[in-house]
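Retry 2 of 3 after timeout on previous attempt. Resubmitting structure tokens to design endpoint.
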């Protein structure tokens, strides 16, 4: 029994896409090729993860273009799983999308030297330069997800751009989890998700999600189809191993619908 299928209606629950950036970060600190990025992805998929995510940044601080090509080859052996490549489409992302045609491209408005992703697109201001790139991805058969702050008013613009989904940037929620602002943050994300769904968009979520905050988020925010989780999951895997860690995150997702 697939732990992600809701027994009631057998509808698929939220998919878990493991971001393996941080495996590559550790690998890059020696010229030994370990830990292997592709082996990490394979072990996560074998344990039940529904996808793999990478964010090949222009400075190749972690995921390198060669990793992306090797992961695409691996993913071909997992037809039920999805490959999600994140990046700024005005930088290095589109060459990889054109060459590999992943299931999903997640457009992220990061600068080349940004420490980590910390904001979504500004719409409609960014729409003019994004629209042709969204259209190109769709012509290639690649789903487009736009990395967005939880602003309900921006969701219709995202839909007008032709995006298939938005990915809600969840760091503000994660930072508030367990504190007095948690409920207010969850309400923000609930409103943003409702606006996205009303505009015909799918809803993804990611950034700083972990075993502690994931279930609360999925219980409160409707229609989340995919969470992409990397930093905390890989940190957990250093203690528990990839397989048990993935199974624990899948349990966190399944608990959200009980
Ligand atoms: C877009 C986002 O929030 C993350 O997917 C991003 O991949 C994090 O990048 P780093 O792993 O380089 O912090
Ligand atoms: N899109 C979010 C992602 O892929 C991983 O973010 P994080 O869990 O490393 O913060």
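Retry 2 succeeded. Sequence:
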């Amino acid at each position: 029994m697939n732990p992600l299928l809701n027994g009631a209606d057998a509808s698929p629950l939220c998919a878990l896409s493991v971001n393996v950036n941080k495996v590559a970060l550790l690998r890059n600190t020696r010229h030994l090729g370990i830990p292997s990025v592709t082996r990490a992805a394979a072990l996560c998929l074998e344990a039940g993860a529904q996808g793999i995510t990478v964010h090949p940044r222009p400075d190749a601080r972690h995921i390198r273009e060669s990793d992306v090509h090797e992961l695409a080859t691996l993913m071909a052996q997992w037809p039920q799983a999805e490959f999600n490549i994140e990046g700024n489409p005005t930088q290095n992302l589109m060459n990889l999308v054109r060459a590999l045609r992943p299931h999903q491209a997640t457009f992220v408005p990061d600068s080349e030297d940004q420490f980590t992703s910390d904001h979504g697109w500004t719409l409609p201001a960014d729409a003019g330069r994004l629209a042709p790139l969204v259209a190109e991805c769709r012509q290639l058969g690649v789903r487009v997800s736009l990395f967005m702050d939880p602003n309900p008013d921006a969701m219709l613009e995202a839909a007008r751009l032709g995006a298939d989904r938005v990915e809600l940037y969840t760091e503000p929620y994660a930072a508030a989890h367990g504190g007095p602002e948690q409920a207010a943050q969850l309400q923000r994300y609930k409103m943003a998700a409702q606006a996205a769904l009303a505009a015909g968009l799918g809803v993804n979520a990611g950034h700083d999600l972990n075993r502690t905050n994931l279930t609360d988020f999925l219980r409160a925010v409707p229609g989340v189809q995919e969470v992409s989780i990397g930093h905390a999951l890989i940190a957990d895997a250093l203690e528990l191993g990839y397989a048990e860690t993935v199974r624990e995150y899948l349990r966190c997702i399944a608990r959200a619908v009980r």
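Attempt log closed. The CA atoms of residues 194 and 222 lie 7 Å apart.
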